[in-house]
Amino acid sequence: MSESNQSVVLVEREGRVAILTINRPEKLNALSQQVRDEMLEHLTALENDDSVGCLVITGAGDKAFIAGADISEFDGRSPMDQRHAMRIPRLYDVMSTFPKPVIAMINGFCLGGGCELSMSCDMRIVSDQARFGQPEIKLGIIPGGGGTQRLPRLVGMGQAMRLILSGDMIRADEALRIGLVDIVHPHEELRVKTLELAQRIASMSPLTLKVAKESLRASERLAIEEGILYERDLFCLCFSTEDMKEGVSAFLEKRQAEWKGR
Ligand code: COA
């Protein structure tokens, strides 16, 4: 069977966590059009699935998270072909605005479009064997999945310039030091530790998670004064929910809260 007839994104469930695995290990999980299309299909289904509270995105095999856009698809492309391939909605934007937390579980090479995809996630939890970079410059292109915009916001302009202009790869400890990633685990513990955190997050009220993410994401586009006012409005809106009443009652009654998502 040709690859196009096989799924290149696998979905598993562990409790309230859905794990999406890009499954092209022989191509280091490069982001082909098929991968992007299948990811978008799964995200659309998972958005409306109340049994899922948190997503984890990872790559199949031991070597790569995602080694970038599929370079073989660039060959012979016209600018209009490329524009069509980059049609809206873009996977990166769907992930950053997805109404549930999305964790990148980075198990190996995290390059180019893979690094950009990870930066669209809400957290990056990584193996100590992972490597990071934006090597597009070596192909005569620049990052096209938000890299020139999201990378400087995470690591500052100087480090973003260094990575994008040199195409150099860095290791997990350096990625942690400059703020590109959030937690580094020994390679063999990555999945267990990441899923523990994902389950804890997924056990919170889905409604409150959604509002918290929305407020955090607003900080990327609003000036601080506007952002503080926006947060105040969302905070007050929480007082209209059954989950807020339940959370407060559960604390006062010294019991576990039972969220309704309302
Ligand atoms: N697009 C398409 N195919 C890719 C790919 C990509 N981004 N990255 C890796 N592959 C393929 C290789 O062509 C090779 O396929 P083949 O076995 O059919 O020849 C396979 O994945 C394994 O990669 P290989 O290069 O042999 O592994 P390596 O361990 O020697 O090197 C990397 C690993 C990540 C350093 C190297 O694959 C690489 O530089 N990849 C491209 C990274 C990049 O430029 N990404 C940005 C794209 S915009």
3D structure, described in words:
With 262 residues, the protein is an alpha/beta fold. The longest helix has 15 residues, at 33-47. It contains eleven helices and ten strands. The chain has helices spanning 33-47, 79-85, 91-96, 113-120, 147-155, 157-166, 172-178, 190-202, 206-218, 224-238, 242-252, and strands at residues 9-14, 17-22, 54-59, 64-66, 102-106, 109-111, 123-127, 131-133, 170-171, 183-185. The strands form two sheets. Strands 1-2-3-5-7-10 form a six-stranded mixed beta sheet, sandwiched between helices. A four-stranded mixed beta sheet has the order 4-6-8-9. It folds into two domains: 3-202, 2-enoyl-CoA Hydratase, Chain A, domain 1; 206-252, Orthogonal Bundle (Lyase 2-enoyl-coa Hydratase, Chain  A, domain 2), CATH 1.10.12. It is globular and about 65 Å long. Helix 5 (147-155) packs across helix 6 (157-166). Bound molecules: coenzyme A. Coenzyme A is lined by residues 27-28, 30, 67-72, 109, 111-113, 135-136, 139.
Which labels suit this protein?
binds coenzyme A; four-stranded mixed β-sheet; single chain; Lyase 2-enoyl-coa Hydratase, Chain  A, domain 2; 2-enoyl-CoA Hydratase, Chain A, domain 1; globular; alpha/beta; 262 residues
Quick synopsis:
This protein has 262 residues and is α/β, with parallel strands linked by helices. The chain has helices spanning 33-47, 79-85, 91-96, 113-120, 147-155, 157-166, 172-178, 190-202, 206-218, 224-238, 242-252, and strands spanning 9-14, 17-22, 54-59, 64-66, 102-106, 109-111, 123-127, 131-133, 170-171, 183-185. The protein has two domains: 3-202, 2-enoyl-CoA Hydratase, Chain A, domain 1; 206-252, Lyase 2-enoyl-coa Hydratase, Chain  A, domain 2 (Orthogonal Bundle).
